[in-house]
Amino acid sequence: MSKTIAINAGSSSLKWQLYQMPEETVLAQGIIERIGLKDSISTVKFDGNKEVQVTDIPDHTMAVKILLNDLIHFNIISAYDEITGVGHRIVAGGEYFTDSVLVDDKVVEQVEELSALAPLHNPGAAAGIRAFRDILPDITSVCVFDNAYHMTMKKHTYMYPIPQKYYTDYKVRKYGAHGTSHKYVAQEAAKMLGRPLEELKIITAHIGNGVSITANYHGESVDTSMGFTPLAGPMMGTRSGDVDPAIIPYLIERDPDLKDAADAVNMLNKQSGLGGVSGISSDMRDIEDGVQAKNPDAVLAYNMFVDRIKKYIGQYFAVLNGADALVFTAGMGENGPLVRQDVIEGMTWFGMELDPEKNVFGYRGDISTPDSKVKVLVISTDEELCIARDVERLRQK
Q1: 2-145 and 194-383: identical CATH topology
Q2: Is 335 marked within a binding site?
Q3: Mean pLDDT per 10-residue run, the chain (397 residues)?
Q4: Fewest CB atoms within 10 A around its CB: which of 31, 259, 263, 301?
Q5: Looking at domain 2-145, what is its CATH homologous superfamily?
């Protein structure tokens, strides 16, 4: 038996989950927030308990030390050597990685090199890797890449219609993201349908603060909505999703707040989407409250959000030439019955029909009617478990 910890590090946060393997039992989980800022917050959950401490945590190395000390302090483990593996979620692996890999110096350098593809994620992930290697240098350390699952896309799918030198010289192409989530829920969908994954065509809709849709053909990703970076695709919480690129120079010439392309991209990443359109919030719960109150900006943001998701799902019915199932997952996908209802209501021609008694908050499973030609499923994603499984797979090797 072994204990594996799954790490999801951001620029100022570190989420973690400790598993007993191979039983896949969650022993504890937590999050450290506001790393590098005053009054950092560390939260640990275990055995029905929740412990919170507020202190200044200057960097990811100190965050890892606090995490490990908490595991001993709360008697979750008795010694560090009980932890045999650590898996790190990496958003951007570029073309370097088509699968999870054991960490060495070169891998860490490549993760840092690819920060331009995921500036909000890769630098923090690299810091987390270095911190664990400093404190626990002898355990199995693994990088699990968000885009690795999408490396099965064909060239005509991942290439952009721009001069090929930008691919050959600068590796500009579609990479995708959320691959760990899409892979996991596609596998779970096959179990739920009682059919081999290798026979199925499944559209997976990861709808959280970040949104991505994937066309899964016989267990492989053949197309996905996120692109060169996680900015592309449907409208998201704070991200615009797809926009005409000519908007960027147009706005830079006219808006004094946008000094250059970096400012414009920052606006599209952090000030757009549901939050930017509504002027209320990037949280769908607040948007739905605004819709109920007949706030016109909330109504517009909601309708745009549903519209963009429908369009991508429709594209992937074409890519797959039909589908056996549509899977909703992640925050809004799992907990947003109204979003699911309004997406499906506009796509009944494809043969999808919801059961209103099952399309309710908290329900997991098949939410379609028995006569629905395409099954509609709600499946809770578990990226951390996927990470832990990959650590065990590579540790055994």
Answers
A1: yes
A2: yes
A3: 85 85 93 84 92 88 88 91 91 88 92 82 84 86 93 97 96 93 95 97 94 96 95 94 96 95 93 94 91 96 97 97 96 93 92 95 94 96 91 87
A4: 259
A5: ATPase, nucleotide binding domain (3.30.420.40)
Tens digit of each residue's pLDDT (9 = 90 or more) over 334-389: 999 999 999 999 898 999 999 999 999 999 999 999 999 999 999 999 888 999 99
Burial 240-261 (b: 16+ CB within 10 A, else e): bbeeeeeebeeebeeeeebeee
Determine whether 297 is an active site residue: no
Find out whether 276 is annotated in a ligand binding site: no
Percent of the chain with pLDDT over 70: 99
> For residues 323 and 216, what is the distance between their CA atoms, to the nearest angstrom?
9
15 is in an annotated binding site: yes
Instruction: Given CATH 3.40.50.880, say whether it is the number of domain 194-383.
Output: no
Q: Which of 39, 81, 105, 146 is catalytic?
A: 146
Q: Is the peptide bond before 22 cis (omega within 30 degrees of 0)?
A: yes
What are the structural domain ranges in the chain? 2-145, 194-383
